[in-house]
Design goal:
The chain contains 7 helices and 8 strands. By secondary structure, it is an alpha/beta fold. Strands 1-4-3-2-5-6-8-7 form an 8-stranded mixed beta sheet, sandwiched between helices.
């Protein structure tokens, strides 16, 4: 269901201390994230956070990690933005922006881990380049992901998952582990469920998951 536009959403986000507009903003955060968080803790990034269930849960579960989420739809970004203020979640920052420019928000080796949860599968071949695991995006991630840093990827779309299993190793990522049925696998123990994931669980769908490690090559 498409969300209705919320009047004043952008103004509210601009006033929220946990939200950054960039990189066109004069306060471009690239290279300054540890200063923004006021600590040197590892940085984990979610690309396309939606209403933010995953990133909000992760921030609460792992206070020793700095979490950043990027989302281009202002109406849904309001949910984690309000959560961060209400709960004084100092280890959570949000970017209102487009993943097409993801490498402009970070500097070399600034991010330890990337989460990509249930992205648009872009099933038409002419749209493959829009996939967040397409090599066009992988090359952007490598500009700021630490060597031995990881991509954690989940999807319910089998075609996209198989595409990703082939794409990552061809572009410098070693597949650390993967499963076609996350919820019945040994990797489910520490799994944090996203909003979309719960929907697919309720429908009896299998969830695919992989972890890719950036080798530096």
């Amino acid at each position: 269901m498409r969300m209705r536009n919320k009047p004043g959403a952008e103004d509210e986000l601009k006033k929220n201390p946990h939200v950054i507009f960039g990189p066109e903003d004069h306060n471009n955060p690239s290279g300054h994230w540890h200063h923004i968080f006021n600590n040197s803790n590892p940085i984990h990034l979610e690309i396309g956070t939606g209403k933010g269930k995953f990133i909000m849960d992760m921030a609460e579960l792992y206070p020793e990690i700095n979490f950043i989420a990027i989302e281009k739809i202002e109406e849904v970004l309001l949910f984690p933005a309000r959560f961060a203020v209400k709960n004084q979640q100092e280890n959570l920052m949000l970017i209102y922006g487009n993943a097409q420019f993801i490498d402009e928000y970070f500097s070399f080796s600034e991010v330890e881990r990337i989460y990509i949860n249930f992205p648009d599968p872009w099933l038409k071949k002419k749209h493959y380049k829009r996939r967040l695991t397409h090599h066009r995006f992988l090359e952007r991630y490598k500009k700021f992901l630490q060597i031995k840093g990881e991509i954690h990827f989940k999807t319910d779309n089998l075609e996209l998952f198989n595409f990703s299993l082939e794409e990552l190793p061809q572009h410098g990522f070693e597949i650390k582990n993967f499963t076609y049925d996350l919820h019945n696998s040994k990797f489910f123990k520490n799994n944090v469920i996203t909003g979309y994931e719960q929907r697919w669980i309720d429908q009896g769908k299998q969830i695919c998951r992989l972890v890719g490690v950036w080798t530096g090559k």
